[in-house]
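Appendix C: a fully annotated inverse folding record. The material below is reproduced so that readers can follow the format used throughout the book. The structure is listed first as tokens, followed by the designed sequence.
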């Protein structure tokens, strides 16, 4: 099916959207009606009471019910860009309902971070980090003989949860000790995925453990692209900037400052890996380091889905709509046939407000402040993330920071972008954290 036929079809195709929230919900609201109709399913892991859906969640039962719904409602495709369950659920539903998609095994091979490291070591070892699996349950004694410092992260997790540099056995032991509620939550988050792993890709091993890697403190980037009928196409690269002295993201910027030959090399690494795991259809995101002194690209991880946060940046700067591309792929169309829109900005950024201590958390902006922002910067896209005190405390423990706001802006150039961010911060009543010189404190903020 050619994607251009969408505009001439007598009836808009119906697509299932799984775990469709935040950036995805905004993008799909814009695309609903013509040329697509949508059915939605799934819960929001990060908001109450929707996240009560985690209690008793059974991924296999969820997929079986959706496959029946897909056949009954005549779905033409199924899409999800949610990392925890959505991407795998969409692949399983597509398989069960006979819809276009990639194999569940290829999704697992990307999302199971230890297995992905093994694949990368086989097909592109020069782009890999030294790594090892930590073969013990959370809270059990840490084995002797491990090399420190190391970077510890869960084999399956999202948003860098529990990912941290540790400098000693005692520090790693403390990092893996949790209270009963925390252990329950961690296991509930991972077990639905692990159950599918045991059935579909058992050689990957348990996801209920940590991956240990050689620590790196280098510039980070994101290669975005898609695969259609086994052929890979690059969309672009988004630069990641960290809060100074931390591993927490401060902002993401497009276009990238990387030289084209480096981007081409990163694309070749992605192509080799995706071929090796038989990723045949869909969008992907490869996070990587680039060491300019050594001229070396090193993979951080592969995400077998659109990085939803970046879709809006590509629309602003390049006139590409990755969410529309994903929908085209889901119904068997070639996304390269979709028309581009006129770019609205030369540069764009996803700006992150974080607190690194509980006392730094500012109040959420009032309705009046939001209205002032919309009037002054009508193209701004704002997400606020209010949480309870206990949830903030858990974020600070698991992530070393609490993300309370996210803002997208487009601008003429980097200076204009910085000035708009400063203006937005003042209107919201927040510090200018996305350009702070230190880790989040208003005392370190510019302006």
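Designed amino acids, in order:
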């Amino acid at each position: 099916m050619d994607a251009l036929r969408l505009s001439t079809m007598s009836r808009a195709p119906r697509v299932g959207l799984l775990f469709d929230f935040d950036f995805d919900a905004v993008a799909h609201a814009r695309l609903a009606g013509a040329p697509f109709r949508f059915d939605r399913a799934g819960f929001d892991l990060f908001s109450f009471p929707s996240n009560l859906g985690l209690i008793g969640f059974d991924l296999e039962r969820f997929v079986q019910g959706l496959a029946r719904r897909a056949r009954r409602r005549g779905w033409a495709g199924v899409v999800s860009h949610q990392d925890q369950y959505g991407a795998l659920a969409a692949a399983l539903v597509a398989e069960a309902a006979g819809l276009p998609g990639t194999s569940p095994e290829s999704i697992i091979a990307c999302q199971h971070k230890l297995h992905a490291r093994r694949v990368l070591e086989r097909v592109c070892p020069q782009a890999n980090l030294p790594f090892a699996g930590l073969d013990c349950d959370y809270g059990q004694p840490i084995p002797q003989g491990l090399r420190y410092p190391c970077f510890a992260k869960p084999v399956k997790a999202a948003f860098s949860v529990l990912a941290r540099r540790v400098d000693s056995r005692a520090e790693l032991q403390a990092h893996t000790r949790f209270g009963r509620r925390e252990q329950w939550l961690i296991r509930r988050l991972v077990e639905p995925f692990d159950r599918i792993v045991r059935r579909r890709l058992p050689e990957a091993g348990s996801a209920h453990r940590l991956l240990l890697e050689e620590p790196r403190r280098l510039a980070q980037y994101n290669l975005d692209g898609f695969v259609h009928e086994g052929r890979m196409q690059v969309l672009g690269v988004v630069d990641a900037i960290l809060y100074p002295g931390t591993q927490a993201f401060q902002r993401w910027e497009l276009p990238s400052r990387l030289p084209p030959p480096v981007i081409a090399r990163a694309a070749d690494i992605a192509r080799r890996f995706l071929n090796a795991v038989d990723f045949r259809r869909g969008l992907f995101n490869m996070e990587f380091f680039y060491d300019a002194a050594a001229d070396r690209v090193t993979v951080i991880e592969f995400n077998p889905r659109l990085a939803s946060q970046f879709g809006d940046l590509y629309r602003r700067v390049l006139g590409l709509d990755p969410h529309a591309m994903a929908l085209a792929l889901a119904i068997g169309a070639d996304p390269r046939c979709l028309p581009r829109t006129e770019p609205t900005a030369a540069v764009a950024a996803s700006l992150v407000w974080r607190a690194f201590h509980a006392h730094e958390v500012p109040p959420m902006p009032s309705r009046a402040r939001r209205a002032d922002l919309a009037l002054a910067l009508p193209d701004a896209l704002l997400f606020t993330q209010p949480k309870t005190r206990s949830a903030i405390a858990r974020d600070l423990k698991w992530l070393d920071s609490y993300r309370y706001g996210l803002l997208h802006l487009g601008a003429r150039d980097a200076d204009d972008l910085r000035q708009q961010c400063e203006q937005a911060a003042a209107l919201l009543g927040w510090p200018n954290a996305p350009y702070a010189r230190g880790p989040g404190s208003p005392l370190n903020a510019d302006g």
